[in-house]
Write a structure and sequence with these properties.
This is ANR family transcriptional regulator. It comes from Serratia aquatilis. This protein is mainly alpha-helical. It is 62% helix and 4% strand.
């Protein structure tokens, strides 16, 4: 179910998602920090991904969609124990 918000709130949510995906993700050093970040990111994504804004521009909607996708990708990079998973394209068989 979509929750409609004001444009300012929609943009703030976009900024929050990008900050979680970039600044907060890369600030994590230990497995426990990444585990905590992962659970926090999952909660925020679940809370924010169903936002909508009737007056948002196409650019606003595109940025919001990109922020959600980026956060999903970052979450997928961390396993439930806090270890960073490498993409299969990086793993080299010897």
């Amino acid at each position: 179910m979509t929750t409609f918000v004001l444009v300012a709130d929609y943009r703030n949510a976009t900024d929050r998602l990008f900050t979680l995906a970039n600044a907060h993700f890369y600030a994590c050093v230990t497995h426990s920090e990444r585990r905590s970040w992962r659970s926090c990111a999952q909660r925020h994504l679940a809370e924010l991904e169903n936002l909508g804004c009737k007056r948002a521009s196409e650019r606003d909607r595109r940025c919001f969609t990109q922020a959600c996708q980026l956060l999903r990708e970052r979450i997928a990079m961390v396993d439930p124990h806090g270890e960073v998973l490498l993409p299969t394209s990086v793993v080299v068989d010897r």
